[in-house]
Amino acid sequence: MSNIIKLLPDHIANQIAAGEVIQRPASVVKELMENSIDSGANHIQLILKDSGKQLIQVVDNGKGMNPEDARLAFERHATSKISSGEDLFNIRTMGFRGEALASIAAVARVELITRQEGEELGTRILIEGSEVSSQEPAAALSGTSISVKNLFYNIPARRKFLKSDRVELRHIIQEFERIALGFPQIEFSLHNDDSELMKLPGGNLKERILNVFGKNLGDKLFPISETTDFLTLKGFAVKPQFCKKSRKEQFLFLNNRYFKSGYLHHAVKGAYEGLLTADEQPSYFIFFDIDPTLVDVNVHPTKQEVKFQDERIIYNLLRVTIRHGLGKHQLTPTLDFDLERGERLIASGHISDHAPNAASTSGKASPSPSGGSFQPSAPRREKEDGDNWAQIFEGIRKDLTEQPGADQMKLETGEKKEVFSGFFQVLQRYVVIKTDRGVVLINQQRAHEQILYEQFLKSIENEEGTSQNLLFPKTIEMAASEAALLQELVPDLQKTGLQIEHFGGNSFVIHGRPAIWTREMEEEEMLTEILENYRIKGEYRDLAKRIAFSMARSLRIPGKKVLSETEMSVLISKMLVEKPHLDLIHKKTVVTLDEEALSKLFKS
Ligand SMILES: Nc1ncnc2c1ncn2[C@@H]1O[C@H](COP(=O)(O)OP(=O)(O)OP(=O)(O)O)[C@@H](O)[C@H]1O
Ligand SMILES: [Mg+2]
């Protein structure tokens, strides 16, 4: 019988290898930018057409390649960065596998133009599906430019799987940000079609973070730093009162390379223990500098996972350093752990137990009941400051006047109607209603969110959102990653009454706000929060629902709040009498305890 095993031709082997490294335009961006970093460039430009589907070009002013190296760069396992097996355990460059360019050239049309400083002429190479179609001397700037056109042109199945331009652009921006954060001293820019999405001058880490994520992050961060025999740890983390609900701003770097680690993330979260609510996430930008012989970055083809020699030590060090940073900046009550958890939260200035009631919004944190062993050092939770919660009910209050008198309301909590005879609030969180058959409990925050959700959803679906015009239109500048998402949502946001227009680049103009948008919050900040909530509610496929959810989540009352009688009546009326549940956000907003349920509670 003849042999059946054959060696695959190079271009097929390359395509297979590309499957691991090159999954989408963002992977090409990552590989090309990392090569530019390894080339010693201090200026790197990324130019896209159609969010990378037509063109991804990276131009650098690094050391360039001579004609032979330029040709060799596209061979598999061709690298200038390591030469022996031992080198694999002493990696100081971003690349080392020698397969990125070969993989890219197997699945796209590539043009490379490169010149080394001191040489008169450079080299231009065209390569398509691993075949070099031309190589010639060419005039060129010093450095390297690589253009990758029509990614996956020869693998229709892969091309078909690419997502919309907006989604691909978001992935690209994410990779771009990770690299840009890792190398703040390098100047970067990003263009898509004809607009400049980011321009980042070289600077220090703090400047880079603010340039990427917006200047208003500035006051929200505190520095962390620690040095031991074998590592340096530095960076920034966010003060607890500014923690958000999304995990978008969580970055770990090892020797300037972005990496992911659920384990170390857990260490960071652990440092914030007692300072965050369950759904809040700290933002952090943490850099480990470690002797490369003590780590392995060759764990995964995309190099986003790393292995430390002793991860537990790193875990503990990270946790302690951040905890220490929080304490040093008086963000945690580090000295007195005897207090009840709730008191600690108050003392740290993070959560107030003194929810302003509807009539008074003085917003002063109540003194620590322990007798003041702490000075509340951080400002009160900003999101809740200055909001007049009473107003939030304004839009729905008028409905109440059209309801029958509160005490005559018939509740429909189950199949059957029941009559209720009074209500009150407990723990500043729940509305308790006495009925002829037992009690009904309403989780007030969830109920409020539900009511707003339904209002927003209705206004989106019927395109009837009323709007309050701003006296002067306001131009806002969003971070690039947010701008891409916001642009996608503009048409639906308009239906809620938010008069917003894209103004080119990352700018938007707001002419009016939805009438129910009564929280006193800067538009920019509110939009950021809406986008954040939009991201976390992944399960709603329907765009309108996701937007309604995001807006409701951003506008709902805080977890704890004293409600006035009227406000309670509104909740009761909306939740139990009208019950227009278009869709339930929460499984449990209302709990009914009838006689049977109550007596069950007493069975041991
Ligand atoms: N922008 C650039 N400037 C100078 N040389 C470059 C540039 N891009 C690539 N090269 C050269 O081409 C070689 C091959 O690049 P390629 O990305 O395929 O492999 P690598 O970076 O060595 O490893 P990896 O596959 O892990 O990225 C590099 O080792 C480098 O010598
Ligand atoms: Mg490389």
3D architecture notes:
The chain is an alpha+beta fold. The protein folds into three domains: about 10-205, Heat Shock Protein 90, CATH 3.30.565; about 205-330, Ribosomal Protein S5, domain 2; about 390-590, MutL, C-terminal domain, regulatory subdomain (Ribosomal Protein S8, Chain: A, domain 1, 2-Layer Sandwich), CATH 3.30.1370. Helix content is about 35%, strand content about 25%. It has 18 helices and 23 strands. Strands 5-4-3-6-2-1-7-8 form an eight-stranded mixed β-sheet. It has a five-stranded mixed β-sheet with strand order 9-10-13-11-12, with helices on both faces. A five-stranded antiparallel β-sheet has the order 16-17-18-19-23. A hairpin with a 2-residue loop joins β4 (about 120-130) and β5. α1 packs across α4 (about 100-105) and α15 (about 525-535) crosses α16 (about 545-555). The longest helix has 19 residues, at about 445-460. It is elongated, with a radius of gyration of 29 Å. The N and C termini lie far apart (about 75 Å). The structure holds adenosine-5'-triphosphate and magnesium ion (MG).
Question: Which spans have pLDDT < 50 for at least 5 consecutive residues?
Answer: 332-415
Bound molecules: adenosine-5'-triphosphate, magnesium ion
State Rg.
Answer: 29 Å
Per CATH, the architecture of the largest domain is 2-Layer Sandwich
Main CATH class of the largest domain: Alpha Beta
Main-sheet strand order equals 5-4-3-6-2-1-7-8
**β-sheet strand percentage:** 15-25%
What structural category characterises the helix and strand content? alpha+beta
Q: Helix segment count?
A: 18
Number of strands: 23
Mind telling me the CATH superfamily name of the largest domain?
MutL, C-terminal domain, regulatory subdomain
Helix content range: 25-40%
Overall tally of structural domains: 3
CATH topology description of the largest domain? Ribosomal Protein S8, Chain: A, domain 1
Sheet bearing the most strands, described?
Answer: 8 strands, mixed
